[in-house]
Amino acid sequence: MKLGIVGLPNVGKSTLFNALTSAKAEAQNYPFCTIEPNIGIVPVPDTRLDLLANLVKPEKVVPATIEFFDIAGLVKGASKGEGLGNKFLSHIREVEAIVHVVRCFEDENVTHVEGKISPIDDIEIINLELMLSDLEIINNRLQKVEKLAKGDKSYNKEFQLLKTVKDSIEKEQPLRSICFSHEEINLLKSFGLLSIKPILYVCNISEEDLLKDEDNKYVTSVKEYASKENSEVIVVSAKIESEISLLDKEEKKEFLAELGLERPGLDKLINASYDLLGLMSFLTAGPKEVRAWTIKKGTKAPKAAGKIHSDIEKGFIRAEIINYKDLLDCGGTTQAKEKGLVRLEGKDYIIQDGDVVLFRFNV
Questions:
Q1: Is 178 exposed, middle or buried (0-12, 13-18, 19+ CB in 10 A)?
Q2: Structure confidence at residue 19 (pLDDT)
Q3: β-bridge pairing 65-70 and 289-296
Q4: Is 262 exposed, middle or buried (0-12, 13-18, 19+ CB in 10 A)?
Q5: Contact 237, 104 (CB under 8 A)
Q6: pLDDT in the model for residue 18
Q7: Residues 309, 40, 277, 343: what is their CA dihedral angle, to the nearest 10 degrees?
Q8: CA–CA separation, 238 and 17 (whole Å)
Q9: pLDDT at 74
Q10: Is residue 355 a contact partner of residue 297, using CB atoms and an 8 Å limit?
């Protein structure tokens, strides 16, 4: 599952990406220094793994991971090919969700491509380019479906949906803000539309603003905008996060304490991105490894078993389930069983976030 980091040039995308992945994506004060998307696999922070590892003492601990693409800065006119726009839009088309970095800091030494600091204008430039790209796709599809519907009434439903979508885009309403049925969403996704992808806004602020107790005016405006389309907002200082990412574990603790922070902003960003994709983790805990396994929310036990190995899914018999908190409180699986806290679940059980699972199977 991939997330694309987008935004206007010089908003801090590559700096944030470097901090996320400890990679060395080029970060320079000019547009388009990132042309091919940098790709990084990022571990999902999960304190449950450390707690279980302290209990089980495994040989290794394996976190869940997600992929981030650092996609070059979009500019006004991208949908018409401005600033290598067609190439950048094709990269966005390849991801499942969007992390939109918005500049919410003032710095006369860092050029703003539009000449002023205005987060809402920046957001609307990107959203408009995504919608214009969608409109071109919808118009082409509408022409084909209109002809097909004249000879086959089964296309009427799609035709009406496309008309609704076109009307919304022409009103500059991103498709992600509209309630569609599951069937409609799957159909629209098959067209490669961009404005239907879920989005997470990341406000990049200065170090000074990070230490304040209240949001700056730019962050406040982004939160108000995002609430209208039910999108989440995460506030970070990319510069500070890049400094934190270079420290070892103990140094990080000391630095965060000095800043008055409980954990890095990147942890919140990664967790929010994981949730944006509709993902969650179930856990396995044994002497060889403690591990988080990534599944879609709502996944049933056999399908989850297939994440470990296809043979386990094929030969699924049942799953032994215990919540990680109960396992920790009991001090081990044996004690948990004695207290009746380990449940046996069948094929229809929907795995819950934080379930510690042992699959029984026969091949």
A1: middle
A2: 87
A3: unpaired
A4: exposed
A5: no
A6: 86
A7: 40
A8: 9
A9: 64
A10: no
pLDDT in tens, 110-162: 656 666 788 999 999 889 888 988 999 999 999 999 889 888 888 899 999 99
Instruction: Give the alpha-carbon dihedral of 273, 95, 293, 354, to 10 degrees.
Output: 30
Strand partners, 65: 43
* Per-residue model confidence (pLDDT) at position 80: 58
Dihedral of the alpha carbons of 262, 265, 269, 274, in degrees to the nearest 10:
-30
Strand 343-345 relative to strand 232-236, pairing:
unpaired
Write the single-letter amino acid at 249: K
Backbone angles phi, psi at 20, to 5 degrees: -60, -45
CB-based contacts of 298, cutoff 8 Å, min separation 6: 350
**Cβ proximity of 137 and 191 under 8 Å:** yes
Residue 362 exposure: Cα atoms within 13 Å on the Cβ side: 2
Query: Beta 60-62 vs 289-296: how paired, if at all?
Result: parallel
Q: H/E/C letters for each residue in the chain?
A: CEEEEECCCCCCHHHHHHHHHCCCCCCCCCCCCCCCCEEEEEECCCHHHHHHHHHHCCCEEECCEEEEEECCCCCCCHHHCHHHHHHHHHHHHCCCEEEEEEECCCCCCCCCCCCCCCHHHHHHHHHHHHHHHHHHHHHHHHHHHHHHHHHCHHHHHHHHHHHHHHHHHHCCCCHHHCCCCHHHHHHHHCCCCCCCCCEEEEEECCHHHHCCCCCCHHHHHHHHHHHCCCCEEEEECHHHHHHHCCCCHHHHHHHHHHHCCCCCHHHHHHHHHHHHCCEEEEEEECCCEEEEEEEECCCEHHHHHHHHCHHHHHCEEEEEEEEHHHHHHHCCHHHHHHCCCCEEECCCCECCCCEEEEEEECC
pLDDT at residue number 220: 95
pLDDT-flagged residues of the chain (< 70): 23-37, 73-88, 109-115
